[in-house]
C-alpha cells in the first residue's frame, strides 16, 4: 500500500498565512515583530539557511535584521552583539546561526541570549522548562514535527515512537515532546546495537542522523509514520533525506519527503515563536 505523503510545504504555508494575519493585527496596534539573525563567517550552507529565514520573516510582515560578523570576530564582540539585541525593543527574537567558529564558545553565546527572545529554544532555561512541561520556546524542528503529526491526525498517545539521533536540537527534544504526548519513546544513536530491531517496532519513526538514505524498508514496520529530518546530498548531488524514500514509501503508512517535509516546518516554527514573543512583549504597552 503506498503511503500518505506528509506535505510540510503545504502545512507550513497554511500556518504562515495565519502568522501573517496575526502579524498584521499586531502592526495595527503599533508593534511589528522583529527577528534578528546573527551570522558569523562565510559558511555557504549557513548563509542559505539565514537568507531563507530572512525571506520568510519579511514575507509574513516581520522586521528582519541580519547581523553579519567576520569569521575572525572575537567572542567578546559576539556577546556584545547579543547583548545589544537583548536590549533592543524592536527585536523579539534572536537567533545565532550555528555552528560558530571553534574559537567561540557556542554554549556561552546561547546562554547570553535572553530566554525571552530565544526563539530557537536552545537556551538551557527553555530546554529545562520544556522537559518539565512548562511553557517555553521549543526547538523549531521538533516543534514543527509535532505540528506535522497533528495536521495529519497521527495518534501519539500510547504509540511507540523511536527517535534515531540524539542531538540537542532535534533528537533529544523530539523524544521529550512525544513523551509529553504520552508516547512510549526509544532513543537510538550511533552506538545502538541492532538498530533495525528498534526501528521495526516504531509506530512513529523520527530519523535525524545526517546519513543519506540510511533507513530503508527493512527498518520499517508496515504502516508506520516516518518523519525524515535529514538534509543530505546523494551521489548525484541531489538533496535527499536520511530515509531511502523510494523503498520506504511502499511500506510506511505516512512519510515526509525531502525536500518539502520537515524543512519548511522548521522555519515556520521560528516565525511562530517570534510572533509569540512579540505578542507577549508588546502586550505590556498596547
Ligand atoms: P547531529 O550530527 O548533531 O547528530 C546526529 C545524530 O545521529 C547523533 O546523535 C548520532 O549519534 C546519530 N547517528 C549518526 N549516525 C548514525 C547511525 N548510523 N545510526 C544511528 N544513529 C546515528 O545532527 P542533527 O540532529 O543536527 O541533524 C541531523 C540531520 O538533520 C542532518 O542531516 C541535518 O542537516 C538535518 N537537519 C534538518 C533540519 C531541518 O529543518 N530539516 C534541522 C536540523 C537538522 P551519536 O550521538 O552517537 O554520535
Automatic annotation (TrEMBL):
Pfam families xrefs? THF_DHG_CYH, THF_DHG_CYH_C
Named in its record, the pathway it takes part in is: One-carbon metabolism; tetrahydrofolate interconversion
EC assignment: the record states 1.5.1.5, 3.5.4.9
Keywords for the protein's UniProt record, in alphabetical order:
Amino-acid biosynthesis, Histidine biosynthesis, Hydrolase, Methionine biosynthesis, Multifunctional enzyme, NADP, One-carbon metabolism, Oxidoreductase, Purine biosynthesis
A GO molecular-function term, please? methenyltetrahydrofolate cyclohydrolase activity
**Lineage: superkingdom:** Bacteria
Q: Does Cell membrane show up as a keyword for this record?
A: no
Reaction catalysed by this chain? (6R)-5,10-methylene-5,6,7,8-tetrahydrofolate + NADP(+) = (6R)-5,10-methenyltetrahydrofolate + NADPH; (6R)-5,10-methenyltetrahydrofolate + H2O = (6R)-10-formyltetrahydrofolate + H(+)
Q: Where is the Tetrahydrofolate dehydrogenase/cyclohydrolase catalytic domain?
A: 6-120
Residue ranges of the Tetrahydrofolate dehydrogenase/cyclohydrolase NAD(P)-binding domain?
Answer: 139-279
Q: Which residues bind NADP(+)?
A: 165-167
Complexes and interactors: Homodimer.
**Family statement drawn from the similarity comment of this UniProt entry:** Belongs to the tetrahydrofolate dehydrogenase/cyclohydrolase family.
Its function?
A: Catalyzes the oxidation of 5,10-methylenetetrahydrofolate to 5,10-methenyltetrahydrofolate and then the hydrolysis of 5,10-methenyltetrahydrofolate to 10-formyltetrahydrofolate.
Quote the protein name from its UniProt record. Answer: Bifunctional protein FolD
Origin species, per record, is Sporosarcina gallistercoris
Amino acid at each position: 500500500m503506498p503511503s500518505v505523503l506528509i506535505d510540510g510545504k503545504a502545512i507550513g504555508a497554511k500556518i504562515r498565512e495565519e502568522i501573517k494575519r496575526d502579524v498584521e493585527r499586531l502592526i495595527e496596534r503599533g508593534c511589528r515583530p522583529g527577528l534578528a539573525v546573527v551570522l558569523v563567517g562565510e559558511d555557504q550552507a549557513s548563509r542559505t539557511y539565514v537568507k531563507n529565514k530572512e525571506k520568510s520573516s519579511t514575507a509574513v510582515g516581520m522586521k528582519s535584521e541580519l547581523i553579519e560578523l567576520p569569521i575572525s570576530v572575537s567572542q567578546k564582540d559576539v556577546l556584545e552583539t547579543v547583548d545589544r539585541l537583548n536590549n533592543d525593543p524592536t527585536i523579539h527574537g534572536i537567533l545565532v546561526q550555528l555552528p560558530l567558529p571553534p574559537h567561540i564558545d557556542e554554549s556561552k553565546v546561547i546562554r547570553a541570549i535572553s530566554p525571552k527572545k530565544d526563539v530557537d529554544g536552545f537556551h538551557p532555561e527553555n530546554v529545562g522548562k520544556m522537559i518539565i512541561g512548562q511553557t517555553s520556546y521549543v526547538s523549531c524542528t521538533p516543534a514543527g514535527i509535532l505540528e506535522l503529526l497533528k495536521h495529519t491526525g497521527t495518534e501519539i498517545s500510547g504509540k511507540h515512537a523511536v527517535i534515531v539521533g540524539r542531538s540537542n536540537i532535534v533528537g533529544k527534544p523530539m523524544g521529550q515532546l512525544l513523551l509529553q504526548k504520552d508516547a512510549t519513546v526509544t532513543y537510538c544513536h550511533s552506538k545502538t546495537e541492532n538498530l533495525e530491531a528498534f526501528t521495526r517496532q516504531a509506530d512513529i519513526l523520527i530519523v535525524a542522523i545526517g546519513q543519506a538514505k540510511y533507513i530503508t524498508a527493512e527498518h520499517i514496520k508496515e504502516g508506520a509514520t516516518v518523519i525524515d529530518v535529514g538534509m543530505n546530498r546523494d551521489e548525484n548531488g541531489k538533496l535527499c533525506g536520511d530515509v531511502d524514500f523510494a523503498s520506504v514509501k511502499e511500506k510506511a503508512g505516512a512519510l515526509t519527503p525531502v525536500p518539502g517535509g520537515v524543512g519548511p516546518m522548521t522555519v515556520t516554527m521560528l516565525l511562530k515563536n517570534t510572533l509569540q514573543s512579540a505578542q507577549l512583549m508588546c502586550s505590556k504597552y498596547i
